[in-house]
Amino acid sequence: MKDIYLSLGSNLGNREENLNNAIQQLQEKGAILRSRSSFYKTEGWGNVHLKEFLNMAILISWDLQPMELLLKVQEIEKDLGRKGETKGQKFYQDRQIDIDILYIDDMIINSEELTVPHPRLRERLFVLEPMNEIAADFQDPRDNRTIKFSVENCSDANKVEKLT
């Protein structure tokens, strides 16, 4: 079983329900939920026109190879209403659900299809704050910096508000 950290986000429809449905589908497909953060209300990142997001981080255990994991995550996103990307605008769109693979154990993967650890996670407080809640002492395999260190040194100025 691999320890896998995922970032989940939604800014369309019932955002909380979308995130919970994603977790439920992960579990139905075989993932074991080990930890989940609170919900975080966040500004859209990379596009000022985006609606407000709800984000969270989860830790799951799952016995899948990295590419199998990516395919399962993409399948769940599609099942939950994620639309295909608009030509020329692959990133930073409003979306029903977005699931990003942050870490898979201490693996480092650089392929055309998948990069782990997620290449931009340390630039984004909407990813780091929820991760910090569930795994502050987790060390990034690229340089052994903890999530807590990354939060404290992140230059992202977007507002991230933990919901109770």
State the main characteristics.
164 residues, alpha+beta, Alpha-Beta Plaits, globular
Q: Would you report the number of β strands?
A: 8
- Binned strand content: 25-35%
For the record, give the distance between the C-alpha atoms at the N and C termini, rounded to a whole number: 31 Å
Q: How are helices and strands ordered from N to C?
A: EHEEEHEEEHHE
Q: Number of helical runs?
A: 4
Instruction: Give average pLDDT, whole number.
Output: 91
How would you sum up the major sheet? 6 strands, antiparallel
User: Architecture, CATH level 2?
Assistant: 2-Layer Sandwich
CATH class: Alpha Beta
Radius of gyration: 15 Å
Give a topology summary.
Blueprint: E1 2-10, H1 15-28, E2 32-36, E3 40-42, E4 53-62, H2 66-79, E5 98-104, E6 109-110, E7 115-116, H3 125-135, H4 147-152, E8 160-162
Antiparallel strand pairs: 1-4, 1-5, 2-4, 3-4, 3-8, 6-7
Task: Describe, in short, the structure shown.
With 164 residues, this protein is of the alpha+beta class.
How would you describe this structure to a colleague?
The strands form two sheets. Strands 1, 2, 3, 4, 5 and 8 form a six-stranded antiparallel beta sheet that branches. By secondary structure, this protein is of the alpha+beta class. It is globular, with a radius of gyration of 15 Å. The model has no long low-confidence stretch (mean pLDDT about 90). The longest helix has 14 residues, at about 15-30. It has helices at about 15-30, 65-80, 125-135, 145-150, and strands spanning about 1-10, 30-35, 40, 55-60, 100-105, 110, 115, 160. It has a single domain, classed as Alpha-Beta Plaits, CATH 3.30.70.560. Helices cover about 25% and strands about 25% of the residues. It has four helices and eight strands, in the order E-H-E-E-E-H-E-E-E-H-H-E.
